[in-house]
Structures are given as C-alpha cells and as structure tokens.
C-alpha cells in the first residue's frame, strides 16, 4: 500500500468514516483523475466516489471547512480542463448512474448516467432526449448540463438548457436544493423554503436592476458557452433557476440529479453527404440549407476527410480525394416519402441549381446514415494513430462565431495558421456557428508550445 503524505492521510481518515462511498488519496489513484480530454494535467488531493446525495453534501461541507476546492467529474471528456483541479474530485461515474423514473414526456436521472444509455432506455418508449453532444457515447448527463452541451442536432433540439425541467443540486455549504422554473407572484417568490425564497428574490432583483446591461451584452452567437446565461433567466414572472445553473460548470452548485424533457423518436430520417471543391462553397451552402430547417448540418474540411479515410476504407470510396470540404445534413419527417423529397430537394438546390457541390450521396437506411455520421466523428481515433510526433491538440474547441461572420472568420484563422506554419483540422456545426480547430503540434517541443499559445491568444 502506497504511503500517504500527512494531508492525504488526514483527508482519507476524516472522510472514510463519514461516507457510504469511497475516498482515495493515494498518488497513483489520484493520478488517474489528473487528466481529461484536454491537454492539461492537475493531480487532485483526493477522489470521492459518492454513493448517495448525503455523500456529496458531506464532501462539500468538509471541503469548505478545510478550504479545499471541489471538482465535479462525469466521464472526463471535456477539452478545457473543467473537471481538473488540486482539490477533491467528486467522481459521479462510479455510482450515480441510475435512471430513476420516466413519465410520458420526461425522465429523472442521476448525474452520472451516460447519455447513450439513457437514450437506449428511452427508445423502448419511443422517446429520446435529443440534445446531442458529440461525446454522447460516454458523456454523462451531469457533464452535459455543466457546459450546456449542444451538438450536431442543435438546429432541431437546441442545447441542454432547453430540456431541463428540474435539477437537484448541492450548494457550497452542503445544503440540498431543488431548482426549476420558479414562479414569482407579483414579482416575489413564495417558496416554502426560506433560503430558496431569499435566493430567488435576490436573483430576480439583481436581474431586474441590471436588465439593460445584460441585454446590451447579449451574445450575437447562436451557441455560446462563455459565462453565465443571464439574458433569458427572468421572463413573465418566472425565474428559470435551473436554466441559470445549466452551463455554470459546478461554480454555483453540484448537480446530483435532473428531470429532463423527452421527445418522440423521428419516424423517418434521411441524410445527404455533399462534396465541395472549396470550403467557401460549403459555407455558402450551409447558409442556404439553414432556410430548409434541417435537423443538423456539419462541415468537415479536407484534413478531417483525409484522416477519416485512414480510419475506415469505406470513406476512401465514399469521399473522393479532390474534396476540399463536405457537409453532412439530416432531415426527418412523419412520412418516408416526405423525407426523401426534402433530401432530394436539398441536393437539387445545392448541386444542380446553385452548382456549389460537385458530388452528393443520399442515405435513408439506418446503417448508411450511421456511416455518414461516423464520418463527422472520425478524426480523434484516426489522428491518434498517425505516425510522427505531431498530434491534434484540443485547444480550440467549440469556438462560437455569429453565423454571418463564419466565412470571414475562417479566412482569418487560415491565414493565422499559415503564418505559424501549423497544419489544422477543421470541423463545425455550420448552422449554429460552432467551430472546432485541431492544430497538429508536438507539445514536447517548446517551439510548438509557444505556437499553441500564440494561436490560442
């Protein structure tokens, strides 16, 4: 057994008798939680795997008493280091993965439930939870709530904040609170919990008094995860307390469970793969496609497509090497014929009427549609297998850009990367203006680290 230092031994000894779950402070185990999907590494002083809400509250109270930070962690797939820190990690993936109950149009789950497992469960009822982060295969509900996750299907489903009905959170003092859309009667909360009532009234007062400032700083971007979401929290004598907590990354409270809205599964779907000889034509096409209100529209550049071919030989056949960019677009409808008409009309406009795309493929079979969508997710596994020392660095993920500025922004970025002689892969959720750059760098080289910092700035 590894010998603990004095602080770790004290923390482990203090908490072991107070928790139903596990507490580990040995260096080797804590090192497993020092990284996530980002480039950063910070080893925590301890890892708590709570079995129940009481464990979460106990840990947070203890951390407050000992002046330790608390870092809530789901699957650890984030690319910004949000779940890393030198304090106590609360690992929700071990025990907090129960689907508690479901109704006709809602489901109540613990924070550590994996989103793909949740949707598999809901499929039996003909339902789904449609907000679609790209890490849905392993990402947890709590993690998606923490960052107000949105993905390819944002045009149809929006981000997580749209689907939250209620949340159970533990506050900084270890007290439990239920948060939802809190009614205000004549502008004042009459919640029976005095602490929550005071909190809601104070928030409502602050939001009213700073309404002009909040509105003046309203983002022009369709999707923006920066800062707290203040602009639409107070509306029509309702304060959306859950909406404020979504996207706050654990800084306002730690989510332990959530009640989410569910939607019917689409009856029929269809996907178009459009191929372009320039990325500019792909962006112009995305602007046209937005008017057709698709479920999703993802943009992939030449480097991304090249990496996909190295991963799966089917993409070598599917995507010709002269393609400089591609769009993957999905429609859904009540009737099979309706969906086929939508997809065919899309291809007719972009390829034959506007002459923007030089090639196209259509898919209506579930296997073929999954292959098209796999193309959008292929870069990570393929890039990791590349030879040489350079690797894709997840340091420029989910950049939010006003859609009308997307083309100009990409030109400026391409010039920046050329100036620093850096190869970059690009993918984007084109309709909402969410961009992901992955510069290929060797972070063992000081020169590449310097390039990364300059590019990020």
Kindly provide the name of the CATH class of the largest domain: Alpha Beta
The largest sheet, given as strand count, sense and whether it forms a barrel, is:
8 strands, antiparallel
DSSP, total strands: 22
Q: Tell me the span between the first and last alpha carbons.
A: 44 Å
CATH architecture descriptor text of the largest domain: 3-Layer(aba) Sandwich
Global shape: globular
Number of domains: 3
Q: What's the average pLDDT?
A: 91
Q: Please state the structural category.
A: alpha+beta
Compute the gyration radius: what is it? Answer: 23 Å
Tell me what portion of residues adopts beta-strand conformation: 15-25%
- Range of helix content: 25-40%
CATH fold-level topology of the largest domain:
Vanillyl-alcohol Oxidase, Chain A, domain 3
Please give the count of helices: 17
The low-pLDDT segments are: none
In short:
By secondary structure, the protein is α+β, with helices and mostly antiparallel strands.
């Amino acid at each position: 057994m590894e010998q603990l230092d004095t602080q770790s031994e004290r923390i482990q000894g203090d908490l072991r008798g107070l928790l139903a779950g596990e507490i580990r402070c040995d260096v080797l185990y804590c090192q497993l939680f020092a990284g996530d999907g980002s480039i950063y590494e910070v080893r925590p002083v301890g890892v708590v795997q709570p079995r129940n809400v009481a464990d979460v509250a106990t840990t947070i109270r203890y951390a407050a008493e000992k002046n330790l930070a608390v870092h809530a962690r789901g699957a650890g797939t984030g690319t910004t280091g949000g779940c890393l820190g030198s304090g106590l990690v609360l690992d929700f993936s071990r025990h907090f993965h129960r689907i508690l109950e479901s109704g006709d149009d809602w489901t109540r789950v613990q924070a550590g439930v994996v989103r793909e497992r949740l949707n598999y469960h809901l499929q039996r009822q003909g339902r789904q939870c449609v907000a679609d982060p790209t890490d849905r295969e392993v990402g947890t509900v709590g993690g998606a709530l923490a960052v107000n996750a949105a993905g390819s299907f944002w045009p149809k489903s929006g981000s997580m904040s749209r689907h939250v009905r209620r949340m159970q959170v533990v506050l900084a003092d270890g007290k439990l609170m239920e948060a939802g859309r809190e009614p205000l009667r004549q502008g004042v909360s009459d919640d029976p919990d005095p602490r929550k009532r005071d909190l809601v009234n104070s928030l409502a007062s602050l939001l009213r008094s700073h309404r002009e400032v909040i509105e003046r700083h309203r983002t022009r971007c369709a999707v923006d995860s920066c800062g707290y979401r203040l602009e639409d929290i107070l509306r029509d004598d309702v304060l959306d307390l859950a909406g404020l907590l979504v996207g706050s990354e654990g800084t306002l409270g730690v989510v332990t469970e959530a009640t989410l809205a569910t939607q019917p599964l689409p009856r029929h779907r269809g996907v178009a793969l459009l191929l372009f000889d320039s990325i500019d034509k792909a962006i112009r096409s995305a602007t046209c496609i937005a008017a057709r209100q698709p479920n999703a529209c993802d943009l992939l550049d030449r480097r991304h497509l090249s990496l996909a071919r190295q991963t799966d030989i089917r993409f070598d056949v599917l995507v010709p090497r002269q393609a400089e960019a591609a769009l993957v677009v999905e429609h859904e409808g009540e009737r099979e014929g309706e969906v086929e008409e939508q997809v065919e009309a899309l291809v007719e406009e972009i390829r034959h009427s506007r002459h923007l795309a030089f090639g196209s493929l259509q898919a209506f079979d579930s296997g073929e549609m999954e292959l098209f969508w796999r193309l959008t997710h292929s870069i990570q596994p393929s890039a990791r297998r590349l030879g040489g020392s350079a690797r894709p660095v997840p340091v420029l993920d989910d950049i939010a850009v006003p859609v009308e500025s997307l083309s100009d922004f990409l030109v400026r970025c391409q010039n920046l990367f050329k100036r620093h002689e850096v190869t970059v892969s690009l993918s984007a959720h084109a309709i909402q203006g969410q961009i992901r750059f992955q510069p290929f760098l060797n972070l063992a080289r000081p020169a590449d680290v310097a390039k990364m910092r300059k590019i990020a700035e």
